Amino acid sequence: MNYGRKLDPRPLRADVTVTELVDDFLLAYNAARLREACHLLVQKMLRPEVTVGLTLSGALTPAGLGYAAVVPLIESGFIDWIVSTGANLYHDLHRSLGFELYQTNPFVDDVALREQKIIRIYDIVFHQDVLLKSDAFLYRVLSADEFQQRMGTAELHYRLGRYVAEREQLLGGRYRSILSAAYKAAVPVYTSSPGDSTIGMNIAALRMVGCKLAIDVELDVNETTAIVYHAKTTGGRSGLLIFGGGSPKNFALQTEPQIQEVLGLDEKGHDYFIQVTDARPDTGGLSGATPSEAITWGKVDPEQLPDTIACYLDSTVAMPIITAYALARAEPRPHKRLYERRAEMLEALSRSYKGKILDKS
Question: Domain limits of the chain?
């Protein structure tokens, strides 16, 4: 009888590589789920015909994972579109603007830190001036003429990414941010809750002094839906790599119910689904919801359930391992440059929806 893979442990060596660690030593429980996630990503999701979306929630970029992990994934062509919390994009700017963050003991005196104007994110600290100076940069940039219009968050982040890339170059290119890397690779970056971050707070402040910048959230819904619809109707597949959960996870997954339920177009769901989360499924929250539960909403293709992995693990542990494994095992892919194709994809979705309506009338 074939029981499955034989568990054949061996002693770890001092010179073990990341690929060996994943393939040969992550044997069971969530370690095995992490191994399966690495294999699914490299063996199936990173094929040329798959459009890969990345979602980010939780304080990942203050810990350095924007530059350490997300940027290499973008630059290797492994990520085609992104949905992130605004906070991750905002805090990812600090190093690119020349500011410094530090590690500390998480059991410090927060009252004393407040008196010293020190901000803490668990075991990361930085001076309040980092926020104030980052805000000043955003305020100046977003006041520029090119931002005085209504736009989706992909356009907002693309335009902002150009300014950030210029600042990085002026500072010698020590760090690269998610926004500058996405700008150069034409990877569209969306924020599902644009008002829920300091970027949104600066836009709100500018509005009170006559700024015309406004976020078109409906356009974001339609553009992300168009990306998935284009992938699935042009002979390709769609996969999601989800770190954390929350609003970015739902925003990326809701593209399928938007296609099927709201627009009434034929579709089955995303083909590949990898999630790393520390949220439990039994509390009913989306962050811990399983791939099989997503099937009931039409978010995941039921025929592809074996190609879905939920790994219950801290993203700050899993992301460096998954990234290193992908970089070692997969060949770089040409950038799909979906940002430049948004109008084309949206027009194709619109034609299909209008055709559906005409068929019903």
Answer: 42-94+151-196+215-360
